[in-house]
Amino acid sequence: xxxxxxxxxxxxxxxxxxxxxxxxxxxxxxxxxxxxxxxxxxxxxxxxxxxxxxxxxxxxxxxxxxxxxxxxxxxxxxxxxxxxxxxxxxxxxxxxxxxxxxxxxxxxxxxxxxxxxxxxxxxxxxxxxxxxxxxxxxxxxxxxxxxxxxxxxxxxxxxxxxxxxxxxxxxxxxxxxxxxxxxxxxxxxxxxxxxxxxxxxxxxxxxxxxxxxxxxxxxxxxxxxxxxxxxxxxxxxxxxxxxxxxxxxxxxxxxxxxxxxxxxxxxxxxxxxxxxxxxxxxxxxxxxxxxxxxxxxxxxxxxxxxxxxxxxxxxxxxxxxxxxxxxxxxxxxxxxxxxxxxxxxxxxxxxxxxxxxxxxxxxxxxxxxxxxxxxxxxxxxxxxxxxxxxxxxxxxxxxxxxxxxxxxxxxxxxxxxxxxxxxxxxxxxxxxxxxxxxxxxxxxxxxxxxxxxxxxxxxxxxxxxxxxxxxxxxxxxxxxxxxxxxxxxxxxxxxxxxxxxxxxxxxxxxxxxxxxxxxxxxxxxxxxxxxxxxxxxxxxxxxxxxxxxxxxxxxxxxxxxxxxxxxxxxxxxxxxxxxxxxxxxxxxxxxxxxxxxxxxxxxxxxxxxxxxxxxxxxxxxxxxxxxxxxxxxxxxxxxxxxxxxxxxxxxxxxxxxxxxxxxxxxxxxxxxxxxxxxxxxxxxxxxxxxxxxxxxxxxxxxxxxxxxxx
Length: 710
Hints:
Elements: E1 2-5, E2 8-11, E3 13-19, E4 24-30, H1 37-59, H2 62-70, H3 74-83, H4 95-101, H5 110-126, H6 130-144, H7 150-166, H8 170-183, H9 187-199, H10 204-220, H11 224-237, H12 243-255, H13 262-281, H14 285-299, E5 302-303, H15 306-323, H16 326-342, H17 346-359, H18 369-372, H19 378-390, H20 396-412, H21 418-433, H22 437-450, H23 455-468, H24 471-485, H25 489-501, H26 505-512, H27 522-534, H28 553-570, E6 576-579, E7 584-587, H29 591-606, E8 612-620, E9 623-631, E10 635-643, H30 649-666, E11 670-677, E12 690-693, E13 696-704
Parallel strand pairs: 10-11, 11-13
Antiparallel strand pairs: 1-2, 3-4, 4-5, 6-7, 8-9, 9-10, 12-13
Helix pairs in contact: 2-3, 5-6, 6-7, 7-8, 7-9, 8-9, 9-10, 10-11, 11-12, 12-13, 13-14, 13-15, 14-15, 15-16, 17-19, 19-20, 19-21, 20-21, 21-22, 22-23, 24-25, 25-26, 25-27, 26-27, 28-29
């Protein structure tokens, strides 16, 4: 394209790529237009023309089809549908499904009926209307199952399984998925099966396992779009459970998508937008800033993505506000205003207002109600009702009314997902404000039944149980959360507190004895142990709990490093005695024995759920190993050495020779030298963290025991 302006010739080349799933054209230009508003406007217009052309191509046959259906000329209507079936993938007019439902199939012959049902399934699936899809699938399987090609039959059976999952018939869905899995050879089909199994998985571990199988198969089948969808699903799943995993999966999605064309640049920008939003929700503002800047860099020079770019600027503005960068806030406000002026879409502007309010937990004024009345976008209406319910400037009876309206609208469209969970949670919070704690508990539980990982709801419910002294209910609830989150210290502490308050002192003590890692909780744990003992509870005798899991070399090295830090911090002065006359510290008698017992205590507590043994002074040839750790799959030798004051570093380093001798005798190839370094200077000097001697490896752990450190 060549444009002439101000007597200068500008050559601008445009490239557009279409996403057939939503008929959206994304383009970019080569050549610099220096902010030429005419060229910017022209580029946007070209994108609109392309989108409208594709939309018209997909929809312009529907008027003729509708007229024939109205006149009950079903055979002629079928001919129109059949001759335009290549256009169905571009169709955007959902009214066509209402017309299909009026079709009299009995006037068609068998071949025609089969073809009609295939087209009806394709359209209903495209418009995400699963119950209509299910009806057509059941009919085609009932009448034509023996005549269908194998891959189509598998896909239809898969849709039946998906419908069973949507209807919460989980046992039926599980059996249907597994039936297809046993007979299909298609990796792409297996990927969809594993996605279905992940959705109905009863535990987080099963969910992740199936989701990762789905991801692997989508990726190896060349379907990167669905592979990325799976990773984003995993990221969302772990948002409230494991923030690091949440971010990890988003980054993995970013890594597998190359921004090699305009559409993929927009997708990459979308992923980085999602990353920025997640960082912001985790209150990692600087990282959110970096991610949103990358999203803007990808999206800003594209054509046909103004709405997406506007959302990006909104998020960038919010991040800049939190960072106190007023200049950037002003810049993004101007960019948003500029886009608003060029987007002639009132629904989009309303959505932006509602979404921004929800994300920032802000209310919207009651006057907003007139703007959303009679809008076709039901999700916009529902979200607005929920926001009215959160508006503390309204009387409580009005807020209850709006939340009831939200739930009523949700029931009409049969949504049973996060937005319903949010509505129930909002009701729970409102009942709490209204001093009705029992009702608050009822609706927060309903919310968690749908979305069990909403941490704010979990925290609110725990506080309500404690406030109302419902200790049995709290114990039951915590048991359900421990099944999801695992044996986290804080949850176990709260459970022990509930057991104590309910008079189960010995059971509470048994639970408290497992808590060993959270230093922030330690004072509370110690106080609660004392209370339980005062009330007649007895500490359980320690019994090793054998589990099938074991530890690897890096796990064990990390544990020994933690042990060294713990001893250095808490037990440093146990190794020293002070001579007042000489005004100096000297080692206690047999410091290595003290060191050994401290290590044994730490490992016994840290590895109490792993099948292992700690053996002392095992004879090997002419020597004796200090400690021999024998696990289910790994065994390690630990040699202890003292360094400092009367013990030289040369003496400590003799431990390496001893270990090499022991390893050869026990036919082991990995060992640990644990040095207790009491030097006042040159801490850790001469010791190598990882030393390789032929095929043998020695890891050295240094524990700082400098007595002059306060």
